[in-house]
Design a protein that fits this description.
globular; mainly alpha; two-stranded antiparallel ribbon; about 5% strand
């Protein structure tokens, strides 16, 4: 029974990354099982095998894969139903996700390290923290593949309202249903820090606060000092630049 459960876990994991052919039960022609194993050996050492060596080489490899993938995502069919990605797109996303952390989950520190590679000229740690909080919907201190694709599905394939709701949740740092000037200032400072001091034209020190004042002048319709989700969505929909920026994500994947 234990061997059967192990075989099922391996089958599900290989289906996710496209290394398993469901029809034949054999490794996919595009990427052999040996290649999959070799890549696992070269991945980040955030998880190590904790089982005793098996008798056969095949069992050793299978045990390593199971012990390395500490969190196994839900089935492909279920993820396809719950997101707006195709099976092929999910496999591509899963391979990339698993390459960054074979554990199957990403900690905040790992997330910050990955994100910093995209903004080497600045300090992206604070903005990455806010972004991590938005993806970590379970608030358990880690982002699973499911968390990642659910958020990405909204950002890339969601309706305008879906995307604006996700953005509002990112800005609403304490999740009380409204955005204050202090919260928006924290976000703006993190963005300016991420972009770095050597941008052109040079950013002034008071630029984040000026941006916040402009934001509230446009969004805070009843002038009560906070921006609600209704005010946020209505104002964004009236802004042509914001709407155009939303459309840029339509064909990312």
């Amino acid at each position: 029974m234990k061997a059967k459960n192990r075989d099922q876990s391996l089958s599900d994991s290989r289906e996710l990354d496209g290394s398993y052919d469901q029809l034949t039960g054999n490794p996919s022609n595009s990427q052999s099982k040996k290649t999959i194993k070799q890549r696992f050996l070269k991945l980040l050492p955030c998880c190590q095998p904790s089982v005793a060596p098996s008798i056969s080489q095949s069992n050793v490899e299978d045990d390593f894969e199971l012990s390395t993938v500490c969190h196994r995502p839900e089935s492909m069919d279920k993820l396809q139903e719950q997101t707006k990605f195709t099976k092929k797109e999910l496999q591509v996303l899963y391979r990339g996700f698993k390459n960054e952390c074979p554990c199957g989950v990403v900690s905040e520190e790992n997330f910050k390290t990955i994100y910093s590679q995209f903004f080497p000229q600045g300090d992206s740690s604070m903005y990455a923290h806010f972004l991590f909080e938005a993806f970590d919907t379970n608030k358990n201190g880690s982002v699973s593949f499911e968390d990642f694709v659910f958020g990405l599905s909204i950002i890339l394939r969601g309706t305008i309202n879906d995307r604006l709701n996700w953005a509002f949740n990112l800005y609403d740092l304490n999740k009380d249903g409204c955005i204050t000037k202090e919260e928006m200032l924290d976000i703006m400072r993190s963005i300016y820090d991420m972009m770095g001091k050597y941008t052109y034209p040079t950013m002034q020190d008071d630029a984040p606060r000026d941006h916040v004042e402009s934001f509230f002048q446009k969004m805070d319709q009843n002038k009560d000092g906070v921006v609600t989700i209704e005010e946020f969505i209505e104002s964004c929909k009236k802004d042509e630049n914001i709407m155009q920026s939303m459309q840029l994500f339509d064909n990312v994947i």
